[in-house]
Amino acid sequence: MTYETLLVERRGGVAQITLNRPEVLNALNEPMYRELSRTFDDIAADPAVRAVLLTGAGRAFCSGADLARPRQTPEGGTLGDGVAETMHSLINPMVARIAALRKPVVAAVNGVVAGGGVGVALACDIVIAARSASFIQVFGPNLGIVPDIGCTWAVPRLVGRARALGLALLGERLPAEKAADWGLIWAAVDDDRLMAEAEAVADRLAAGPTTGFGLIKRALLASEGNDFESQLAFEAESQRIAFNTHDTMEGVAAFLQKRKPAFTGA
Questions:
Q1: Where in the sequence is the domain holding 167, given as residue range(s)?
Q2: Between 20 and 30 A from 63 (CA), which of 55, 130, 214, 254?
Q3: Which residues, other chains included, contact 91 with Cβ-Cβ below 8 Å and sequence gap of 6+?
Q4: How many CB atoms lie within 10 A of CB 58?
Q5: Looking at residue 117, which CATH number applies to its domain?
Q6: Would 251 be classed as within a structural domain?
Q7: How much is the mean pLDDT over the chain?
Q8: With bands split at pLDDT 50, 70 and 90, how would you rate the model's confidence at 201?
Q9: Boundary (domain end) residue, out of 206, 226, 248
Q10: CA nearest 102: which of 199, 205, 21, 4?
Q11: Which of 27, 1, 42, 11 is nearest to 200 (CA)?
Q12: Are residues 97 and 178 in the same domain?
């Protein structure tokens, strides 16, 4: 498959996806939305891929939506109608695919991440950022628009309502180390160690119980909307699935035999 906006390569069980529009700080455009959706669909269907590493080319992870691209106004509608329709049909399905993938997704944030790029990063499961990186919500104070691509869902759940409002209303840069301290991301690491650290995490996840990881992701997502008893029931049904997998049987056997498990992802 050829790509206009991405670089996609395989390393063992890891698929590495690089946002590849460095001349515009990897700004999101229509071809990138489509290629990300298609790539995550392919990964979901490929049992040989057991983890994903997402990063950006050049000096940024992603600067958000490409504001220079022309926007379509539907016949008889407004500019806002066109934006909303594009979000419903193209942008939202893309970020939903990242979040819903039943395999672990690691983001290596290599520089500035702004606007909708924050939503793309936070749709990943483990976010590791270079210390020089920063997160910025430019939507409101700079443009008068609402944070999107999942930002209004993810940010308050990760850092709380007060901090989410401060970030959204003031548009101040949040340095990577503070983002880690606040719980927005997993870790901030030295710039020259970013890819090595992220690759090590992705490799570790790719060697793990893939189905079990997918069940964990689903259970934690479900907990956001469940009461305690409903979540207990959800856990029980998740364990029903997990204990019927090869990897859980292997994990139990390895535990009892005091050896390292050899997971296959099945």
A1: 6-206
A2: 214
A3: 28, 33, 116, 148, 149
A4: 16
A5: 3.90.226.10
A6: yes
A7: 96
A8: very high
A9: 206
A10: 205
A11: 11
A12: yes
Q: How many domains does the chain have?
A: 2
Mean per-residue pLDDT for 106-129? 97
Q: pTM score > 0.90 for this model?
A: yes
Residues in the chain: 266
Whether 68 shows a pLDDT value over 90: the answer reads: no
Q: Are residues 49 and 131 in the same domain?
A: yes
50 and 133 assigned to the same domain = yes
Contact 41, 94 (CB under 8 A): no
Establish if 263 belongs to a structural domain. no
| pLDDT level of residue 139 (50, 70, 90 thresholds) | confident
3-state secondary structure of 68: coil
The H-assigned helical ranges of the chain are 30-45, 79-86, 92-100, 116-122, 151-159, 161-170, 176-182, 194-206, 210-223, 228-242, 246-256
Helical axes 92-100 vs 30-45, angle rounded to 10°: 30
Residues 233 and 186 in one domain: no
Q: What is the pLDDT of residue 208?
A: 98
Is 265 contained in some domain?
A: no
